Amino acid sequence: MTEPRSGQLDDTQILLDRIRLGDEQAREVLYARLLPGIRRWARGRLPSGSRDLSETDDLVQIALSRSLSRLEAFESRGRGAFMGYLRQILLN
């Protein structure tokens, strides 16, 4: 997966903060930004029973939606923390 551009990491934190305040546009922007990368990551790493393309895409979308609706459970601990959080959700 490609690394975020310079400044994008700060943008991610800003978007997360805005989402916590109820900003739906920030949710859509972050969702669109993260979906392609987490989808690529998941396709090669989920258990074989979940690797069907449509099942993987469904799981990724569910995990991303749930993570964004439960941001109070997420505490950023530096670079890549939210993507790591998403990966862990998918593996569980």
TrEMBL record:
Gene3D superfamilies membership: 1.10.1740.10
- Start and end residues of each RNA polymerase sigma-70 region domain: 30-90
Q: Which InterPro entries does the record associate with it?
A: RNA_pol_sigma70_r2 (IPR007627), RNA_pol_sigma_r2 (IPR013325)
- Could you name the domain of life of the organism this protein comes from? Bacteria
Q: Please provide an example of a Pfam family that matches this protein in its UniProt record.
A: Sigma70_r2
Q: Which GO terms describe its biological process?
A: DNA-templated transcription initiation
Q: Which GO terms describe its molecular function?
A: DNA-binding transcription factor activity
Q: What is this protein called?
A: RNA polymerase sigma-70 region 2 domain-containing protein
Could you tell me which species this protein originates from? Eiseniibacteriota bacterium
**What lineage does UniProt assign to this protein's organism?**
Bacteria, Candidatus Eiseniibacteriota
